[in-house]
Amino acid sequence: MEGKARKRRKWWIVGGVLVVGAVAWYVLGLGPLVNFIVRTYGGSIEQRTYKGDSAANLKSIHTALMLYYDSEGQFPSADGWMDATLDRLKTADMADTETKKKLQGPSGGTNGYGYSYNDAVAQKVKSEVRDPSRTVLVYESQDNKWNAHGSPAEETKKSPNAKAVTVAGQVTTLADVPNKSPGQAP
After folding, report:
1. Residue 139 to residue 121: CA distance in whole angstroms
2. What is the domain count for the chain?
3. The domain containing residue 171 runs over which residues?
């Protein structure tokens, strides 16, 4: 009987210590500090709207394509380049609808996209691109379809002042870069 009483007393002491510790934790300010940290860093993230111009869009697209290249070892296929890079454009503080705005060029309006991918770099590795600083990767286009692709040389005839980003990441205009395929001499 005396053994059971000791065990009960022991558990009451352990429980009392835990209660006193919890009260001390809160009174000393550690409770509110933990609550603040959890609410600040562990809660939901406030979503922001995307605001960017064509140059910012092209830089984001270039970064996403380079992330794709780093993970897959080659550039994506022309008919699926937006599909392949969309997840790499996402950020935690931006809704999916806002992320897609990064793929909307000036000619895309609200329903189209307005960027095209250079067919000449599709499924290539960087070593096959002779002059990355003068080879167009993505460019503003009058083709507003999802996964639009084609020849920058053809678009230059229609819109020479359209912006483009090169394989090396430089934002320029189509008129300022020679539109040769990766295997041709600069």
Report:
1. 13
2. 2
3. 54-176
